[in-house]
Amino acid sequence: MFLEPMLAKSSHCQLPYPGWIYEPKIDGMRIIAVKFDNQKTILFSRRKLSENEKFPDILKTLSSSEESTWVLDGEIAALDQQGKPSFNLLQRARDKVLTVFYLFDLLSLRKRDLRRLPLSTRKDLLYHFFSHLPSPVRLIPYFSEEPKKVAAKIKELGFEGVVAKRADSVYTSGKRSSAWLKFKFLKRQEFVIIGWTEPKGSLKPFGSLLLGYYQNNVLCYAGRVGSGFSEQTALELYTLLKKLEISSSPFSQTPPIQFPRSLSIHWTKPMILCEVAFREWTALGKIRQPIFVGIRTDKSPLEVTRE
């Protein structure tokens, strides 16, 4: 039984306190794991696609659970050599990088729906029934101390931010709730790639990527990103985008967006998503100091809105 994940709202205020618990924000892929009557285990992405073939070790470990039926919520992350989650590495899971499934919620157990129970109770049950599972499955640590100390510790551990959750919150599937708030140390979000520019005086396949997002189903321009790519990632991206190249801009804004004449732009169908880290949004609605993080495959383009 697939259950849609509960989603957190982005926040730029101070961490709320007390009555909240805090988890590291994992830089990875959201997964709903389901075990059916001791017969089959499936790792579902947010789009309800099976990710079993990508993560066989995680699947094997979860399947070894003594409990016959359950639904778990968590995030799969790839760890770098320092043991820190890296979304870019997750794109190359096929290269035998270490991937870990961080569990943070228990939605159903023994065919009983637990979503109406307080989060603190669900956490207790999660730790009681699943703490024995070996790596690559881990239970995400959580804290209830003073927020500044928690944030400093989580940042030191190399995570991308903090997720604050009300200790008494119920689980609302498919909803983005203010009972869960996400705080990123550096702003980052998904964008739709809508084109690329020709490189200037280099052997790179492109100079920068043109980015967009949807607002009321209208594609809006967010700026360009030209750093953060490895040679391999840049080549793979260029190959994907070249196959989707179109002759005219996908924007329907009036008046049309004016780009510098010095830019040689290639347009592409708005189908490929990527995650970008950046300092802030400018007054003109563009991202400042962007850095490419990785390709995203767990959302549809129309889900990509300005956060």
From TrEMBL:
ATP-dependent DNA ligase family profile domain mapped to chain residues: 92-184
Keyword ATP-binding on entry: no
CDD domains per UniProt: Adenylation_DNA_ligase_LigD_LigC, OBF_DNA_ligase_LigD
Family indicated by similarity: Belongs to the ATP-dependent DNA ligase family.
EC number(s) stated in the UniProt entry for this protein: 6.5.1.1
Keywords noted in UniProt: Ligase
Catalytic reaction(s) noted: ATP + (deoxyribonucleotide)n-3'-hydroxyl + 5'-phospho-(deoxyribonucleotide)m = (deoxyribonucleotide)n+m + AMP + diphosphate
Taxon lineage: Bacteria, Pseudomonadati, Verrucomicrobiota, Methylacidiphilae, Methylacidiphilales
Keyword Ligase carried by entry: yes
Organism listed in the record: Methylacidiphilum kamchatkense Kam1
Pfam families, per the entry: DNA_ligase_A_C, DNA_ligase_A_M
Protein name: DNA ligase (ATP)
